[in-house]
Write a structure and sequence with these properties.
single chain, mainly alpha
């Protein structure tokens, strides 16, 4: 899983323990801790198109309540997603070069692939996890005065989408953990800058501070 320069620098066998644990947990989630409901729901749950109503609701809610500041808010959401996706897909994945579990020869016959095909791209980090956690954390911080404690359910949503990536057979648990860390860090820094530069959002944009 680790890039070549880390493999060379680490003591012999250093990465074998975490990798074995990661594979063991993957097999448990993907092939043992399963049920027919999750088999039907999670492939659909992880799809971006499934959440179009949520995105449209947030767009409409922002336009109706945040005034002109909504466009800055939306721009920062897009910027956050661009950063998480590009860093995950074009920097970390090629650097690490980890093969997806559904393409891993040593796991042949052990993976339940619940999607139509297995992508040929690399596995670590999960861009799904990075993007969803980046989006969720940005909203949790910037909407703190709007939705209160209810906004924390966005983190549960991001975690459930990330779990689905393992369940359907296309990522290891460490892939989604790495993606989650990337997304949380990016979303936090982006939201922190937005709040400090443009003020905290509330339902009366004239009183935003």
């Amino acid at each position: 899983m680790a890039p070549a320069f880390l493999l060379a620098a680490a003591p012999p066998g250093f990465w074998s323990g975490p990798d074995r644990l990661d594979r063991w947990l993957f097999v448990k989630i993907n092939s043992v801790w399963t049920n027919s409901l999750f088999d039907s729901v999670l492939p659909w749950w992880r799809e971006a198109n499934t959440w179009i109503p949520l995105y449209l609701f947030l767009l409409l809610f922002g336009i109706l309540n945040f005034g002109k500041k909504v466009w800055l808010w939306l721009a920062f959401i897009v910027l956050t997603l661009v950063i998480t996706d590009q860093v995950s897909s074009h920097i970390i994945k090629p650097l690490v070069g980890r093969i997806r579990p559904c393409n891993e020869p040593s796991l042949a016959g052990q993976v339940r692939l619940l999607l139509g095909n297995c992508s040929g791209t690399y596995s670590f980090t999960s861009s799904h996890a990075a993007n969803h956690f980046g989006f969720a954390v940005f909203l949790v911080i910037t909407l703190q005065q709007v939705f209160g404690k209810w906004r924390r359910w966005l983190l549960v949503w991001a975690a459930s989408v990330s779990y689905a990536q393992v369940y359907v057979g296309i990522h290891y648990p460490l892939d989604v953990l790495g993606g989650a860390i990337l997304g949380i860090a990016t979303g936090y820094l982006s939201a922190l800058f937005f709040n400090r530069r443009f003020g905290i959002l509330n339902l009366n944009p004239a009183e935003s501070r």
